[in-house]
Structures are given as structure tokens and as C-alpha cells.
Amino acid sequence: MKNLRKSGGFTLIEVMVVIVILGVLAALVVPNVMGKAGEARMKAARVDLKGIETALNLYHMDNFVYPSSDQGLQALVSKPSGFPEAKNWTQPYLKKAPKDPWGNEYQYLSPGSNGPYDLFSLGADGKPGGEGEAADVSVADL
User: Is residue 106 within 8 Å of residue 121, measured between CB atoms?
Assistant: First the structure.
């Protein structure tokens, strides 16, 4: 009978101690991890904008103009029609039309308010302005 008792599993106290330790660790780790998702999306949007900016500059080098607002960022994926004509467009500058980390289209205006174009994301809320994850992310901010 003594041999069976020593070869048994964990006691209730041991299981409770492990559960308490896991609970304390979760209470410390989860809040730190949860706040990082929004920050990661903001960084991803900045990286995307930098890549789109590079593609727009390549488009400009080949065609001597930036796409119009009507042609939009789709001009980087397939040859645009309309004005200004893309005379030297030979292959896509991007594989697909870009979307921001929240699933919305990036905003592109040409001519821009402070340069040849404005390129930005409206953030998590999809509306101009905002704070935190809902803030706009712009090429001008990079």
C-alpha cells in the first residue's frame, strides 16, 4: 500500500501552486502583449508607405509624372489609362493594390498639398485625424 501512495500523481496543493503561478504570469504578460498589436500595425503601415513611396518614385522615373488621383495606386499594379499617360510603363511596380494593416485602402492624392502627392492611411478608424491606433499615418511623417 505504501508503494502505491509514493508513485501517485501531483497533490492538490501542488496543482494549486502551479495554477497560481500561471495566473500571476498571465496577469503580468497579457497586458504588455495586448498593447503591442496596435503599435505593430502602425509600424507595418509605415513600412508599407515607404514601399509604396519607392514604387511611386520608380513610376515617376520611368514615366516622368506621378499617377493622377483618378489613376490612383492601381497605376502601380496595372498600366493606367487616361491622363497623364504612362508612356514607359512596362511591368507592375507592385504585385497587388496595397491595403493598410486595418484592411482599408491607402489614400493617394496627386498633386498633394505639400508636394507632388499625398500618401497616407486613415488608421484603425478609417476617418481623418484620431489618436493612438486611430491616428493617420502619412509619408510626410516618415
Answer: yes
